Amino acid sequence: MGEVGYGIDLNVVRRIAQEVKEVHDLGAEVALVVGGGNIFRGLKESAAGMDRASADYMGMLATVMNAVALQDALEKRDVFTRVVSAIEMREVAEPFIRRRAIRHLEKGRIVIFAAGIGQPFFTTDTAAAVRALEIQADVLMKATRVGGIYTADPRENPNAVKIEELSYNRVLQEELAFMDASAVSLCKDNNLEILVFDMTEHGNIKRAVTGERVGSIVRASAGSSAK
């Protein structure tokens, strides 16, 4: 969305695509899960009072639009990309088949997962956790607009403290709202680490993948280091 009120800011899409390409060029297997809030925000008034399931399906369709935009930007940079949708729409995306998605990654293609898991009442966070587990990802990286996990929203509270390492249990017990509880629980049950970082800072995607200290990490056992 960038600086616009809603919709797609192509400059942001191009920047993200370039950073993802740099990660891909390192030889990493990359799968992306995209949300649809930037588009759905423009439909929010229309969806007011709408049945939750219907609104969720509209949100899923918005994620497909974002995925196609990102695919276009990546392929303009000569990166082979596949959009894989949980809702079947063969003209614009492949249906989700777990083994096929893994095969795309093995062949060096970037996979963009769209339409969540195809069911209402599940967030993009949960979809990301599910897909990460299905493809046996090494880590789930949540790209946000803040520098990690804080004791409060740093955009609203200047006294918020960044927590660099913390456990799944602490996240759930203190209800730290960087990701919904069901997604965190899935990661906890399967020991999938979560890295939360600011994607608006240029180069952070590559820094996160190459192991530089960016953002906050959630794992089974962690200290309480704060900054």
Throw out a few tags for this protein.
single chain; 227 residues; alpha/beta; Carbamate kinase; four-stranded parallel beta sheet; four-stranded mixed beta sheet; 9 helices
Describe the protein.
The chain has 227 residues and is of the alpha/beta class. The chain has two domains: 1-136, 3-Layer(aba) Sandwich (Carbamate kinase), CATH 3.40.1160.10; 138-227, Carbamate kinase, CATH 3.40.1160. The chain has helices spanning 10-25, 37-40, 44-47, 52-75, 98-106, 124-134, 168-174, 181-189, 204-209, and strands spanning 31-33, 81-85, 94-95, 110-114, 140-144, 149-150, 162-163, 165-167, 194-198, 216-219. The strands form three sheets. Strands 1-4-2-3 form a four-stranded parallel β-sheet, with helices on both faces. The protein has a four-stranded mixed β-sheet with strand order 5-9-10-8. Strands 6-7 form a two-stranded antiparallel ribbon. Helix 7 (168-174) runs antiparallel to helix 8. The longest helix is centred in the N-terminal third of the chain and has 24 residues, at 52-75.
Which helices and strands appear, and what pairs or packs with what?
Elements: H1 10-25, E1 31-33, H2 37-40, H3 44-47, H4 52-75, E2 81-85, E3 94-95, H5 98-106, E4 110-114, H6 124-134, E5 140-144, E6 149-150, E7 162-163, E8 165-167, H7 168-174, H8 181-189, E9 194-198, H9 204-209, E10 216-219
Parallel strand pairs: 1-4, 2-3, 2-4, 5-9, 8-10
Antiparallel strand pairs: 6-7, 9-10
Helix pairs in contact: 1-4, 6-8, 7-8
